[in-house]
Design brief:
Blueprint lengths: L7 H4 L7 H31 L16 H10 L4 H16 L6 H19 L7 H21 L7 H33 L6 H15 L1
């Protein structure tokens, strides 16, 4: 006999966005945008600290990638990663960044990097490994974009260093941090209306009945 949490009907995935999905994704995007803006202010002094190895400043790239991963993990609908990352980019751009309109372009590309990973898993895997891969996907996206633009004139060794650093940063700051934030939100009960919160409640119920 199927439990209410595991019936075939309960497993049918509805990819249509609800009003609450839009609202929460927007809130995540706006809050992330403020953090993006602050991270942009910190970028100059932090990159100076890493200047002993040219290209190592790619380790800071993940500070602009977590919105896509977190949005995807929370909303779990196609387009969530791109939406939250773009909203965050627009907010940081409107507040004022040194990169101006290009911030929006970077936001679209970074969001797509994470979105592609979630899509490859058919929007059905939300484990830590998937979060780390989504962060890596966003890191690959920003690494390629920066190497082709901001670092186009530098030596290949610096380009490789930057690209690898950006991917590592994407995994850690974009993927792992987003996963930890998600777990915190789930424990607080803030995601009770989302699959992430219901999955956690279901696992807790199963453990209690063992």
């Amino acid at each position: 006999m199927h439990s209410p949490l595991t019936t075939p009907a309960a497993r049918v995935r509805n990819y249509r966005w609800r009003v609450v999905d839009i609202v929460v994704a927007s809130v995540i995007g706006v809050a992330s945008g403020v953090i993006f803006w602050a991270w942009g202010l910190a970028w100059t002094p932090l990159s100076a600290v890493l200047a002993f190895t040219p290209g190592l400043e790619g380790l800071l790239a993940g500070g602009w990638l977590f919105a896509a991963v977190l949005g995807g993990l929370v909303v779990r609908k196609p387009g969530a990663a791109v939406y939250t990352e773009v909203v965050a980019a627009v907010v940081s751009m409107l507040i004022g960044t040194q990169w101006g309109f290009s911030t929006l372009i970077w936001g679209v590309v970074e969001g797509l990097g994470a979105e592609i990973v979630f899509a490859l898993f058919l929007y059905s895997s939300w484990k830590l490994g998937t979060a780390l891969l989504a962060g890596a996907g966003a890191g690959v996206a920003v690494g390629i974009l920066d190497v082709l633009n901001s670092y186009a004139a530098v030596d290949d060794a610096i380009k490789v260093t930057y690209f690898v650093s950006a991917v590592v940063s994407g995994v850690l700051l974009g993927g792992l941090v987003s996963w930890l934030v998600l777990r915190g939100l789930v424990r607080s009960g803030a995601l009770s209306r989302f699959a992430a919160g219901r999955d956690s409640a279901g696992r807790a119920t199963q453990r209690a009945t063992v």
